[in-house]
Each structure stands twice: as structure tokens, then as C-alpha cells.
Specification:
single chain; 102 residues; alpha+beta; 3-stranded antiparallel beta sheet; 3 helices; ribosomal protein; structural constituent of ribosome
């Protein structure tokens, strides 16, 4: 079909400030979307639908780029040595700050 991107795969590695911004955005979106999460030895994996773009104002002017993409696969690689350590990191990541209202 014209204008349809079928099996397009793109991998990006984020580090530093860009990674931090993405993780903050993901933590906000994950509480709003129902995405199953797979915890492995040193990684966290999940998929997100393109609704993630709706929570990213910087992508608003470029949404036409994403309109034919069905979703995103995200892998967060951690410094954990075991699956239990990775689970602990993920559970702490999703916690709200003590001073933050719910």
C-alpha cells in the first residue's frame, strides 16, 4: 500500500540528558497506558502504541512521520546483575516522589 510502512525497524541508543528525559516521559506514560512489561536479567522490555506521541509535545509538529507506525518496542538496559535487581530498579522507577501528590 502506498504510504504504509510495514516492517520498518529503527534502533536508537539514548544516553545522558536525552535518556533521562525519555525515562521521565516513559514513567508518566506507563501509568496511563496498559503495556505489559518483561523483566529480564539486566533489561526491561515493553511495547507501546503510537499514543506515546500524544504525550510528547515536541513530536506534535511531526506526527505525520509516525502516523503509519503501529508502535514502539522499548528496551531499557540496566546495570543490574540479576532479574531481581532489575525488578527492584523498575519498581523504584515507577514510584512517585514522596512530595508528589497522586
Amino acid at each position: 500500500k502506498k504510504g504504509y510502512v510495514s516492517d520498518l525497524a529503527r534502533q536508537s541508543t539514548l544516553r545522558g540528558h536525552g535518556m533521562s528525559n525519555f525515562l521521565v516521559r516513559i514513567s508518566t506514560v506507563m501509568s496511563l497506558l496498559d503495556s505489559p512489561v518483561e523483566i529480564r536479567e539486566n533489561s526491561i522490555q515493553f511495547s507501546m502504541e503510537t499514543e506515546f506521541c500524544e504525550f510528547s509535545p515536541e513530536l506534535e509538529d511531526h506526527f505525520e512521520i509516525f502516523e503509519h507506525i503501529r508502535g514502539f518496542n522499548v528496551t531499557i538496559v540496566t546495570s543490574a546483575n540479576t532479574q531481581d535487581e532489575t525488578l527492584l530498579l523498575w519498581s523504584g522507577f515507577l514510584q512517585k516522589d514522596e512530595g508528589e501528590s497522586q
